[in-house]
Amino acid sequence: MKDKKVFISGASRGIGKSIAEHFLINNYIVIGTSRSDSNIDKDYKNYHHFSIDITSRIDIKNLHQSLENDDLLPDILINNAGITDDKLFLKMSDENWDNVINTNLTGTFNLTKVFIKNMIKKRYGRIINISSVSGLMGNPGQVNYSSSKSALNGFTKSLAKELGSRNITVNSVAPGFISTDMTTFLDNNKKDEIIRDIPLKRFGKSEDVSQLVYFLASDNSSYITGQTISVDGGLLMH
Ligand SMILES: NC(=O)c1ccc[n+]([C@@H]2O[C@H](COP(=O)([O-])OP(=O)(O)OC[C@H]3O[C@@H](n4cnc5c(N)ncnc54)[C@H](OP(=O)(O)O)[C@@H]3O)[C@@H](O)[C@H]2O)c1
């Protein structure tokens, strides 16, 4: 597996950075992206960073061309980049809606679309979409975000059905509350309130998510596809 190439969107911080580091420690070739510059330790020689916006199809087309030229097209695609732009529905603007859908859902479409052809050609691939517990149970103030994440679960299932015969698996990971920049805005009272509902009585760490992603990207998960797997301390039980 060590010669496998992994592409991770949103690798500059939080969960995406942790995923990137997990693969780097295990000697994979990692291609990371974010709009900002890389935050990954420069000592990792097998890390390649590209500053692109996943909502821009032109950026993605150019990136694809450059990866193809350098023989860096990924075997494993991790659609991790995502944003929140919370507002109660009555106050939610068109812009709040468009930003979140364009990044979380259309961004995933954009990346998957360009990288899938090479996976089909090689008859091997792993696609992992980072969804959210919010897409499974809903959350006030997150109609845009829940919709985008719920849609990713549908995206995952349909694509898994289309690509199973090509030896490509497609799965979603649905984190609960993970301590990253995305959850720092919550004050301590709100955090305590949330923790009361989490059986494991804590927020998750980025590593809790990256370990599962790593497993789903490995050959040990070759009979798992079309699933949405929660990493949420038991917050939502199906
Ligand atoms: N933290 C949680 O509790 C939690 C729970 C459930 C699901 N999730 C999901 O997990 C994923 C990672 O979340 P996180 O908590 O690690 O968030 P984060 O710390 O805010 O990091 C988000 C990453 O996405 C990148 N990004 C955002 N918009 C982008 C764009 N248009 N183009 C390219 N890169 C973009 C960011 O880099 P730039 O800003 O530099 O572009 C950053 O690297 C997201 O999909 C999120 O929805 C998180």
> Which oligomeric state applies?
single chain
What gross morphology would you assign?
globular
CATH topology: Rossmann fold
What is the number of E strands? 7
Q: At the fourth CATH level, what is the homologous superfamily?
A: NAD(P)-binding Rossmann-like Domain
Any ligands, ions or cofactors bound here, and which? NADP nicotinamide-adenine-dinucleotide phosphate
Strand content: 15-25%
What labels describe this entry?
238 residues, 7 strands, 16% strand, Rossmann fold, alpha/beta
Textual characterization of the structure:
This protein is α/β, with parallel strands linked by helices and 238 residues long. The protein has one domain: NAD(P)-binding Rossmann-like Domain (Rossmann fold, 3-Layer(aba) Sandwich). The protein is built from seven helices and seven strands. It has a seven-stranded parallel β-sheet with strand order 3-2-1-4-5-6-7, with helices on both faces. β4, α3 and β5 form a beta-alpha-beta unit. α3 packs parallel to α5. The chain is globular, with a radius of gyration of 17 Å. The structure holds NADP nicotinamide-adenine-dinucleotide phosphate (NAP). NADP nicotinamide-adenine-dinucleotide phosphate (NAP) binds next to α1, β2 and α3.
Short description:
The protein is of the alpha/beta class and 238 residues long. The protein has 7 helices and 7 strands. It has one domain: Rossmann fold, CATH 3.40.50.
